[in-house]
Amino acid sequence: MPITTIRGVHINYQVLGEHGPWVALSPGGRRDLSGVMPLATQVAAAGYRVLLHDRRNCGASDVVIEGDESEYEIWADDLYALLTQLQALPAYIGGSSAGCRLSLLFALRHPEAVRALLLWRVTGGPFAAQRLAHNYYGQFIEAAQQGGMPAVCDTEFFRERIASNPANRDRLLGMDAQRFINVMAHWREYFLRDADLPVIGASAEALGSITVPTCVIPGNDRTHPRRVGENASRLLPNSELHILMPQDSEDDVATAGWDEKQGELASIFIAFLKRVSVASPV
To answer: How far apart are CA 269 and CA 261, in angstroms?
Structure first.
């Protein structure tokens, strides 16, 4: 897969399909691009060029623990720069969970670059904010406090980043532990302060300002409650809602059933893409 430099960071990416409108898809959590490969393959087969990439601090891309904005705002600007480099704008932007946050922030920060949004497993609520703030940041702050940057490198997540990109070890070990803690704590605050917003990363007013066509498929667990996706769809002015998983789960993160629904998920998004492409060709 190609590696390119985006805003000073080496980013691993892949493009599926050779012709057609551009679609960028991002996975949930800190998963690598394989997390959306099954969906991307089906979308590409329907006549689209699909961009997948490992966000900074994910997959085989560089680990760079720096930035004054939230991590998902940084991710949104990285994606904009990557699509610009590929001459792929405007594009359809989509993602699940963390990828959904990236997509919403992309639309808010670069509205002229978005044709439509594909959002699934929307994240919101106090439980999600607290859980993810710890999973993404708190546990690594604790590791750095207890054992400095060597302890951070020894966590399961950063061991995987080093295995995927060996240069990440020197990059991490060369970072001052207190600086690492400060940045991670700053990023954590974005999650904690957004606990009472409709979705993590965007207020009701912000969602109301996004006017591009949007397809929303809610999740079905405590981190991605169905009600959060339904409410987001109501707040987005040009949105359509599709319920793929009607039964709510009490699991923190429900994965059962989603793999089996990949074909249906793809069918909903492809039908949506074809409708909005005809309605406003660009």
So the answer is: 12
